[in-house]
Amino acid sequence: MADDAKESGKPTYSAPALTKGLDVLELLAEARAPLTMKEIAEGLGRSKNEIFRMLIALQERQYIERNAETDAYSLTDKLFKLGLHTPSAQDLMSAAMPELTRIAGDSNQSPHLVVFNHGLTVVTAAVPGGEDMAFTLRLGYGRLATDATSGHVILAFQPPKVATRMIDECAAHSPAPLDREALEKQLRTIRADGYWMRESRDFVGITDICCPVIGPDGSAVASIIVAYINRHTRESRHAFTLEVLRAACDRISMKLSPKVR
Known about the structure:
This protein has 10 helices and 9 strands. By secondary structure, it is of the alpha+beta class. It has a 6-stranded antiparallel β-sheet with strand order 6-5-4-9-8-7, sandwiched between helices. A 3-stranded antiparallel β-sheet has the order 1-3-2. It has 2 domains: 3-76, Orthogonal Bundle (Arc Repressor Mutant, subunit A), CATH 1.10.10.10; 82-256, GAF domain (Beta-Lactamase), CATH 3.30.450.40. The chain has helices spanning 3-8, 16-30, 37-44, 48-60, 78-83, 87-107, 149-156, 160-173, 180-193, 238-256; strands at residues 35-36, 64-66, 72-75, 110-117, 120-126, 142-144, 196-199, 206-214, 220-229. Helix 2 crosses helix 4 (48-60), helix 3 (37-44) crosses helix 4 and helix 7 (149-156) packs across helix 9 (180-193). Helix content is 48%, strand content 19%.
């Protein structure tokens, strides 16, 4: 028992193996690129022998994965998937899924529920829309939040201090310095408009239409983005789809907290 624990009168308990495993996971989560065993050992101030068995155990439980060519380790999405089972995540999914289905049916387009996770956006749910074809991103798909339409919308609806912290997390993953002044200007515009609609930066022929999902504290807990397929033989209904999306996000926010709106 540590001296400070004795002074406070509160017992503490040591679990060295658990602590070691958590240290490995936290180090990999903060790293910009996969790390070799040597790099992990150096980052934790331990020897390779000390962490070898822990890496094997974490790999066997599918919390981390090793690149056979580089021998470098990285996190899998298992921790994220476990996080989807928390009460708050379950509340979000329960409120959002019927509305995603409604958006898909009304717009004939595919809506995606997106959350922010350590500087990245992650698709947590999607419903295919369209009479003859659909465009959907795979569940778990993620990218740098400051590069994504859905990420911008989530960032735009945060308190200033929270937004700064989240942008710092994005910067840790960005290969180039962020233009924070330009980013903050764009976020102010999105917040004033209440949505963001723009041509996709990834896919030709896709228009991103995105609105926030507001949580009980008044900040965005997620965003819903419709990847609108523009077709030569169909009239584009961007404005109509935006109204469908905004109404759905409002209803989800009401379900999460009746006092929000």
